[in-house]
Design goal:
Length: 477
């Protein structure tokens, strides 16, 4: 047998190679740089307004607004930030608001939710303004008069970037990659030139934004509207606050109090109506801080009286809440809301009211709810419900068991209970019907709603006891 002397040498070389591979450091994972796009920016202003994440805008504030809810930081949070670069200056700012124009345009995402026929990095507003995209209108149908894809708060705009007018800036979306740093952004020429737009001076008052409200309440066709800044709306009290959501882009609010002495604010909505039945709806805006009150007290004055309706604005934020359906004269009645509630320092939100005409063709339902022993007779109680106009009156009939005929007992009454007796050991059955304010009358039910057979009998007195009180007898059948 032959011996191969070079085999140990070969094995040694292989072992050395393996050791070198094992000792070599693993390749370092590198994250790509966050993308940067040239975006037309506008100064936000709006000191005293509330942002989408609940921040109250301060003078010389530092944050930005982007037109999508998808990448909004939490209250005072920095989960989503952008680097802004302009004329050699660069700063990082958090995303605390939603806008301008659209609220569904995450144009920075390779998988943007909407407008996917546009290139990544091109805001829908820019394409609409410069190229007539979507007929030149935003998602809400408004004519776009500025190609802006970002709003910049005053401190970032003036102090950090040294901007004096709305202009093109480089925007780096930092949640999509590594921060290139102050000097790492590649400056890109603006996609198109637009007329110079001088910005207001630092002393100019905050202006109403061009951006769309942060919610978009739909109004039922034919509704008669009174908003918080239209004819028919009046308010009393000082230092009202505003937030940028609700019908027509904004609503007013004040902190809640538990008594008028703490500083009552009151608003009244008065519509112009034709006489008839209307459902009254109140819109509860979906943005703002602090949390809305859980006990807003709306007072609805209508033809038949005044109804007080308590609404939990916190759980109904972003919805229309029905305050009920009522009959109104041509004078229209009114709705009143104040900041006097069951809590303190919560937001009471004042926005739009809608009156929606309703036609009532369905009769109401009614029922006997209880029969209980009361002295030598019975306390009979009933109630009912109507879908639109409300119950005008009740009729109640009675018959003696087992075979008596039905007789009228209470006719066209508004009360919902009455005493019946004395029973003198007999049993009776009852039925009820109702009519509504539109004149719809329910038919009599075929069977009794309830009878007295299950009620405790009247106790018999002993021969030596004082006589028990006896009421007027019922007719004997």
């Amino acid at each position: 047998m032959r011996t191969w002397k070079f085999v140990p040498l070969v094995v040694l070389m292989i072992m050395i190679a393996i050791a070198q591979v094992q000792a070599a450091p693993a390749p370092r994972e590198t994250r790509s740089l966050a993308p940067t796009y040239t975006i037309f920016a506008t100064r936000l202003g709006l000191v005293g307004y509330q942002t989408a994440n609940g921040h109250i805008i301060q003078p010389r504030d530092r944050f930005v607004a982007l037109p999508s809810w998808r990448n909004l930081s939490s209250y005072r949070g920095n989960e989503y930030q952008v680097r802004l670069t302009y004329n050699g200056r660069s700063v990082v700012a958090p995303v605390w608001d939603v806008g301008p124009w659209n609220t569904n345009d995450n144009y920075w995402s390779p998988n943007r939710d909407n407008y996917r026929d546009l290139p990544v990095g091109v805001p829908m507003a820019q394409a609409a303004y410069l190229n007539g995209y979507n007929g030149g209108r935003d998602q809400f149908g408004r004519r776009i008069n500025n190609p802006n894809g970002i709003d910049i708060a005053d401190g970032t705009f003036w102090d950090d970037l040294g901007m004096t007018r709305n202009d093109w800036v480089q925007v780096t979306f930092l949640w999509l990659g590594e921060d290139p740093g102050p000097g790492g952004v590649t400056l890109v020429a603006p996609p198109s030139q637009i007329p110079t737009q001088p910005d207001p001076s630092p002393d100019a008052p905050a202006q109403v934004p061009d951006t769309e409200p942060l919610d978009n309440p739909q109004v039922e066709a034919g509704a008669i509207m009174v908003d918080n800044d239209t004819a028919g709306y009046t308010a009393s009290g000082a230092d009202w606050k505003e937030a940028r959501c609700g019908l027509n882009g904004r609503h007013r609010w004040v902190p809640s109090v538990t008594g008028a002495a703490e500083g009552e604010h009151r608003a009244t909505w008065v519509p112009q109506l034709a006489a008839g039945f209307y459902q009254v709806n109140a819109y509860i805006p979906s943005c703002g801080s602090p949390q809305p009150t859980t006990s807003a007290r709306y007072r609805v004055t209508h033809r038949d009286g005044v109804a007080e309706v308590q609404v939990n604005q916190a759980t109904n934020a972003g919805t229309w809440v029905s305050l009920g359906t009522y009959r109104f004269d041509a004078t229209g009645g009114q709705v009143v809301l104040s900041n006097v509630t069951g809590d303190r320092q919560q937001a009471v939100r004042f926005d739009a009211m809608a009156w929606i005409a309703r036609t009532d063709t369905t009769p109401p339902e009614a029922r006997i709810t209880s029969i209980t022993r009361q002295r030598n007779g019975f306390l009979v109680e009933w109630d009912g419900e109507d879908d639109i106009s409300g119950i005008e009156s009740y009729d109640v009939q009675v018959h003696q068991l087992p075979r008596g005929g039905w007789r009228d007992w209470r006719i066209q009454v508004t009360e919902t209970s009455a005493w019946f007796g004395p029973d003198e050991g007999r049993h009776f059955a009852f039925r009820v019907r109702a009519r509504d304010r539109a004149g719809n009358e329910a038919p009599w039910p075929e069977e009794a709603s309830m009878d007295t057979t299950g009620v405790e009998p009247w106790p018999q007195p002993s021969p030596t006891a004082e006589p028990l009180p006896v009421d007027e007898p019922v007719p004997v059948e």
